[in-house]
Design goal:
368 residues, 2 domains, seven-stranded parallel beta sheet, Rossmann fold, alpha/beta, 14 helices, 15% strand
Amino acid sequence: MPRVLLVHHSSQAGGAENSLLDLVGGLSEEWGALVACPGGGPLIEQLEAAGGRVLPAPIARFKCTACPIQLSRYFLAWRRGVRALVAIIKDAGIDIVHSNTTTAHLYGGAAAARCRVPSVWHIRDTAIPGAAKLILPGASACIAISHYIADHVGPAARPGPDVIHNGVDLDEFHPAQHPPQTPTVAMVGQLVPWKNHGDFLRAAARIREAVPSARFLIVGDDMFGDHPHYRQQLESLAEEAGIAESLDFTGYRHDLPQLLRSVSVLVHPSRKEPFGRAVVEAMASGVPVIAYREGGPAEIISHGDTGLLVRPGDVAQLAAGAISVLQAPDKAARLGEAGRARAEEMFDCRNTARKIMAVYSKLLEGRR
């Protein structure tokens, strides 16, 4: 049985982590899966429940900095992490190293090269920090989560990446039997500035004028604690917009599939979104989605059919799209049904796992 070491840079819970969980659960019995990541977070228990064997490893997360002292610390941390992965690869008889993010590939790719085993770089972000480029190892294969990502990483990804979209568990994310009784508009994503929650709140103020009974949810948390004042800023903006009493910050929710079945429409205002897993989760749940026409959502949504796409940055259009869905139950039902059908066709996590296993098989065939 060939053995794959999946490397990840965090043990917290988020979109990339959920995709890792889906992959671990989707790998067939023909592949033995081990996961190397830092210990101490909720991801560990979830990975073990999905059938993965978890091996704690000192993989540090990096932040952009020009400080020579901090860069030196990062370099030493990187060396420790690579040494730990090299030991795991040798001890466990690993055949392929699959790094789930660019940060993970800084470690996993280097360790794989030292052990002379194939490596897979799973690319989930458009930007590669300058310091990372200095030590970013090559890969035997690259996987991009969207064509948008593949186009933006350009020559940094060699060989050219295979585009394999993220999938979701269609048994877990499924439509509700009845539409929500209270008009509920949600945004799902990490509580970080680039997700553009401000546009959601500005759109919410317009939506509430047209649909006074509407409730609003911001679902997600600051996973790494990088933006400690961001929620307070959003709360102040909600007060200024006059919607604070209609808005709930739910934090990270482990029961997201159930929560989405209580949502009337998902508004996704992120700019330059690499993929948009929340968009697919909502579509799989039969929830109409309104998003900006750029990045991953522009690949996921067929405008007017499986959701609505509006001009990036146009809050008025964002709100108008949501209002049109809230005020027209037939339209909401049609978009929800078509969104579910598209998720079944294109974004089943089992198909994603099969495509990734095909990449593994091709790499091993090349070594024979």
